[in-house]
What does this fold into?
Amino acid sequence: MTQGSNPAKITIGEQVIDLPVLKGTLGPDVVDIRKLYGAGDVFTYDPGFTSTASCESKITFIDGDEGVLLHRGYPIDQLAEKSNFLETCYLLLHGELPNAAAYEQFENTITRHTMLHAQFDRFFEGFRRDAHPMAIMTGAVGALSAFYHDSLDIQDAKQREISAHRLIAKMPTIAARAFKYSVGQPFVYPKNDLSYSENFLRMCFAVPAEEYVPNPVLTKAMDRIFILHADHEQNASTSTVRLAGSSGANPFACIAAGIACLWGPSHGGANEEALNMLKEIGTPERIPEFIAGVKDRKYKLMGFGHRVYKNYDPRAKVMQSTCHEVLTAVGDPNDPLLQVARELERIALNDDFFVSRKLYPNIDFYSGITLSAMGFPTTMFTVLFALARTVGWIAQWKEMIEDPSQKIGRPRQIYTGSAARDFVPLSQRG
Ligand code: CMC
It folds into this structure.
């Protein structure tokens, strides 16, 4: 980053404080307020970090007004169309697309780390069968740090890399086991001659009683869905991973924290909520009544709106076409839910309530229908998101550890509680 020639000036009473203005490659300039407290004895107030950059990053760029998402400079639609998930993982981790030899080596490394320690399987059996798979994911991923002691030294670049590889490789195995456990089927082990996404689908849907035949349309859709979810700049779960990591916590613990954050309905849980909403609406005729409820603020239109995108989410466009491909291959292209979704989208994009608030479909609007048609229960949706986002989390975590300007995260506050007062013994309280 570079420093602009004109500083920002903040006036507090008689005092004028100059604050440097920093310039990135793309995006708005940033006022560097690091010296503000020292110089002016004031904090800034920004709940939800709507105006605050928490770090410098070279990984992902979003222009929310234009609906642009770039990973290391490459537009998401190009990656979704021309790349594959593992190549995108390499790009996010290393900053450049791999050449053929580097790709082969990376694919080989990830493929050979997919097994879990045999004792690890006992963890799954400790959970109730009806446990939410995200609860299992949070616990199981945190537990990885109890198994892989040889990659916990975060100061060692080689160990950081091994942890990153382990997480990307083992996440599908853990996610598939969480699913298999919930449906009471035996675990399926990874198979090294399959691609990342093919292997994951097989671990989820193969049963010992018959041969599993991969469906290339579903494999492509799965891979694309993973690419679309791979990273998304400093969102809530990524910021959680960075904050957890800023204390020096090990990468498995940090990713477990990210998974916990992602589970919330305003973040990764939204695709589950969006599908439930479409089912509840049921038919296009009920949409006006539903929209009236949204306007009365009884509930939100799930799968719409985004903190950063004030335009069509570029991932939603790819997701919409993937949805169509999947329904044509394995479902009903005239699925009533798809009809409800299309009509809801059409009405919302023309309704002043949504237009004036710049509420557009986000990635979750179509992902629920797609994943459901692929055979996943709604409880698995956020798990798939977590699986794909692991590479983003770990790339951001690595970047933070390797950034000398990063310190332990410690926001301040504006205190509005009681001023200091003397303790009153119980016998004297009214
Ligand atoms: N339905 C109806 N009204 C909405 C919606 C919605 N989905 N989203 C925002 N609004 C309204 C909100 O009530 C407010 O109206 P007003 O100004 O009259 O009070 C206005 O739009 C601005 O909303 P906001 O709450 O300031 O926006 P935000 O940036 O804080 O919230 C959001 C972003 C994603 C949490 C929110 O849009 C939302 O809850 N959407 C539904 C959940 C969802 O689909 N989440 C997935 C996000 S994409 C996946 C990911 O990246 O994690």
Remarks:
- The pocket of carboxymethyl coenzyme *A is lined by residues 232, 235, 266-268, 270, 294, 300-307, 357, 359, 362-364 (CB under 6 Å).
- The chain has a mean pLDDT of 94.
